[in-house]
Backbone:
């Protein structure tokens, strides 16, 4: 297809998307986003981004092994001169995906098919689009966030970092242990915890293997420059960091789950865990039940009735099709032929007991069921390759729903 035809197709779909959104807005009185984003663009001149070393490695490592219920990072709290009464400066507006995306966006094809075949996007919209980005920034501001899980969590890390305008830092595998990032050295030496490597990284990294640890942060080179940015400013610079720790199967990661959670708690203010998708057979599903109980028990020890530091995220819905059976989850006994719709009431075996364990151990569960109808958003599969109906295209229309679910869960506390 020529470039001209592609551009016409994108224009057509964008128009259909706006019409679909306006129709919903008229029905539910949801405010539009124009005023919000115009305001953001007007304030863009206040932001100065200094691109140097990654701030994530500069965060102070807590020495106290006991659970703490403070949301504030140690570095952020060490700046008493910060004008916390000032509004947060708008973030640098980035569209996802960027060069870090594992999968490119499939928005155009997914929207085009859904609207022309079903008359609507077949994808939920944000409940409060006018305030969504501001609420997301407010929650992350001044906090260190740790995401722990498999490749779906890695995708979440990538799109969330991009959404918040953060610089990602990936590290290739190294032979010398003393060359590891500080937090991995701490995990290994003090807590006897290691993390498996990521063999499939973002698409701009075409060769080599990468550590099962990635960080993203604001692009400030030093705390003094961070303070300087706020002098005389009408807003305070947005300030946060996110770290991703890779794990597929908990028992293969560590024999001491308590120590693992303790480590994560000491390098972050908010912990978000997920395991599930790699527990692929009956025996492993039995292990998953045991692993979930153990993980959520220790996770819940860092929460109180009023405040939570530790959360668990549901495994995202899958949409594998096997002949005439819309199973959803992957079936190792048969060959998947396509991605397609599944029963909306279908419950993933990875999420079946989560609510019960969450209630028992006081761990808030971040829901992912809103992606049940998003079967078109897995992208196109190359001819001769088995379909990947678990990883989603890295587009804001999909992943903002998960970001919103996080905010909803936090605000329920």
Residues:
């Amino acid at each position: 297809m020529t470039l001209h035809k592609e551009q016409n197709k994108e224009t057509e779909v964008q128009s259909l998307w706006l019409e679909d959104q306006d129709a919903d807005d008229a029905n539910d009185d949801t405010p539009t986003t124009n005023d919000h984003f115009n305001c953001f663009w007007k304030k863009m001149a206040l932001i100065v981004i200094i691109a140097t070393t990654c701030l994530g490695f500069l965060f102070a490592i807590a020495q106290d092994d006991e659970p703490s219920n403070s949301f504030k990072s140690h570095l952020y709290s060490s700046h008493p001169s910060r004008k916390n009464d000032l509004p947060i400066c708008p973030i640098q507006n980035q569209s996802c995906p960027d060069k870090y995306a594992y999968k490119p966006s499939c928005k155009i094809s997914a929207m085009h098919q859904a609207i022309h075949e079903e008359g609507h996007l077949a994808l939920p919209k944000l409940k409060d689009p006018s305030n969504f980005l501001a609420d997301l920034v407010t929650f992350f501001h001044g906090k260190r966030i740790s995401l722990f899980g498999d490749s779906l969590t890695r995708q979440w890390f990538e799109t969330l970092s991009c959404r918040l305008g953060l610089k990602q830092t990936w590290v290739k595998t190294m032979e010398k242990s003393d060359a590891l990032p500080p937090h991995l050295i701490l995990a290994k030496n003090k807590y006897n915890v290691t993390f498996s490597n990521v063999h499939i990284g973002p698409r701009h990294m075409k060769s080599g293997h990468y550590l099962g640890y990635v960080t993203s942060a604001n692009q400030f080179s030093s705390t003094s420059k961070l303070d300087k940015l706020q002098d005389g400013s009408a807003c305070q610079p947005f300030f946060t960091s996110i770290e991703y720790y890779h794990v597929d199967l908990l028992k293969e990661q560590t024999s001491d789950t308590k120590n693992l959670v303790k480590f994560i708690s000491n390098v972050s203010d908010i912990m978000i865990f997920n395991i599930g998708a790699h527990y692929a057979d009956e025996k492993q599903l039995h292990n998953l039940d045991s692993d979930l109980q153990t993980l959520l028990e220790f996770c819940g020890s860092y929460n109180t009735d009023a405040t939570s530091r530790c959360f668990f995220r549901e495994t995202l819905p899958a949409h594998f099709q096997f002949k005439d059976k819309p199973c959803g989850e992957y079936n190792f006994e048969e060959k998947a032929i396509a991605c397609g719709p599944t029963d909306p009431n279908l419950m993933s075996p990875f999420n079946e007991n989560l609510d019960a364990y969450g209630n028992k151990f006081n761990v808030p569960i971040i829901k992912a069921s809103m992606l049940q109808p998003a079967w078109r958003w897995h992208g196109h599969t190359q001819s001769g390759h088995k379909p990947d109906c678990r990883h989603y295209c890295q587009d804001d229309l999909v992943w903002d729903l998960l970001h919103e679910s996080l905010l909803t869960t936090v605000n329920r506390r």
User: Anything to note?
Assistant: Strands lie at 144-149, 167-172, 210-217, 241-246, 270-273, 310-313, 320-322, 325-328, 338-339, 365-366. The first strand starts at residue 144 and ends at 149.
